[in-house]
Specification:
The chain has 267 residues and is an alpha+beta fold. The chain has nine helices and seven strands, in the order ββαββαβββααααααα. The longest helix has 22 residues. Bound molecules: iron/sulfur cluster (2 copies) and FE2/S2 (inorganic) cluster (FES).
């Protein structure tokens, strides 16, 4: 990594952006030269392009479209492929990724989700797959339910890191088993992805959330469940929250096996 104080000040960086005018439309590339301010990130550069939508060839064009929310790597909305690596654009500092005058930054939308426009994709399937494993704590009202069951600090620590998942989709973009599924009818049988497996673990280890443990394991036993993981371990390498995804996949694989054996004896 290059320290920001080594970056050339007063420089211009070229943004090569993969664009698409809408669902089903062909993609094309456009380039923009952007003057870099100290502390610039990808989002601030996209804002500059939105205000100056002229390509390096002098062609007036439409502003590039992207999604964002928190601007502090918490919501996951701004996830895109930057210089070939999936990550959040709000935390991608230009001084770090393109410190030289004339450096090139390539921006592409994620490929495992349908493109809505330009760099903006529809991440609905990320949330759909969380519903497949009932990734929530079941409570039956909003009234005061009293204090919950006690939990050891070590267990809280294990669950805390799992709870930092922001549903960004990086682990799905990098996974060779997770593919773009155009037809929603296939979503419930296609590979569920590392994020949902890890969230199933989070809620199965929660003292109240474990009420739905059996249903979560049933979901992970079925088509597209944990056995579809090919153990390529790409997911854990790209997770911006450093969630131990392969550890979660192993833990849930063991739980699913025990659940299958117990189900067989209950027949
Ligand atoms: S370990 Fe499994 S979930 Fe992670 S990238 Fe590989 S196949 Fe995908
Ligand atoms: S597990 Fe990591 S990479 Fe996957 S959606 Fe959650 S935060 Fe993103
Ligand atoms: S805008 Fe929320 S993670 Fe980047």
């Amino acid at each position: 990594m290059i320290a920001s104080n080594q970056a050339v000040q007063g420089r211009t960086v070229r943004f090569k952006i993969k664009r698409c005018d809408g669902p089903g439309k062909a993609s094309y590339w456009q380039s923009f030269d952007v003057p870099i301010e100290p502390g610039s990130n990808i989002i601030s550069c996209l804002q500059w392009i939105a205000a100056h939508p002229t390509t390096v060839d002098g062609e007036k064009t439409t502003p590039v479209v992207w999604d964002s929310g928190c601007l502090e790597e918490v919501c996951g909305a701004c996830t895109m492929v930057i210089n070939g690596r999936v990550r959040q654009s709000c935390s991608a500092l230009i001084d770090v990724i393109a410190p030289g005058d004339g450096d090139v930054v390539t921006l592409e939308p994620m490929t495992k989700f349908p493109v809505i426009r330009d760099l903006w994709v529809d991440r609905e399937r990320v949330f759909h797959n969380l519903k497949r494993v009932k990734a929530w704590v079941p409570i039956d009202g909003t009234y005061n339910l009293g204090s919950g069951p006690k939990e050891a600090p070590e267990k809280q620590g294990t669950r805390y890191v799992l709870s930092t998942c922001m549903s960004c989709g990086c682990c799905l973009e990098a996974c060779p088993q997770f593919n773009l599924e155009e037809d929603e009818a296939d979503w419930d049988t296609a590979f569920i992805g590392a994020h949902a497996i890890s969230q199933a673990r989070l809620f199965n280890e929660h003292e109240t959330g474990k009420q739905l443990k059996g249903e979560r394991l049933d979901a992970l036993m079925g088509p597209g469940g944990v056995s579809d993981c090919g153990n390529a371990q790409n997911c854990v390498k790209v997770c911006p929250k450093h969630i131990p995804l392969t550890e979660s996949i192993s833990a849930m694989g063991r739980s699913v096996t025990l659940h299958a054996i117990a189900s067989w004896f209950r027949r």
